[in-house]
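Let us practice reading a record.
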Amino acid sequence: VDMNVITWLGIYYVKQEMYEAAIPFFSRASQIEPNEVKWRLMVASCYRRMGAYPQALKLYEEIHHSHPNDIECVRYLITICKEMKQKYDHYAAHLRKLERLQEAQVNAQPRPMGTVSAIAGGPDNSPGGGMGMGMGMGMSGMGMGGGMSGGPPSGPQGAADV
């Protein structure tokens, strides 16, 4: 089983807005990698985009039950509850709590001091001369590509809502 092919096909169908065709690929990916929540989120996203809100809501709720701290899932629960005119206050409160927790974790992490070349004086022998090396590089090659070539996408994205 080649996860790259399964993922590629699922994303291709999503990009073509053929959500029903994408679901079996993301379902298979979730069977192969059961601990990877993004595959189930992709299935739920397909249901939502198809307008199959009850199936999407049920799956988002199942995901939330097994992964209560998944911010993306909570955000989609809020979205689908709004679309279905259902109450979502409890999800909104939980989302605020998760966002505060996430921010506290980010703020608690130690800040890097820089690279070895920055400490040694960097290429121009000034402090910090090597800091920031590589920043912003490589990002253009990540994700789905421009989508303008007419061909299928180049690979999976981190977010479940492709």
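A brief commentary: Residues 124-159 have pLDDT under 50 and may be disordered.
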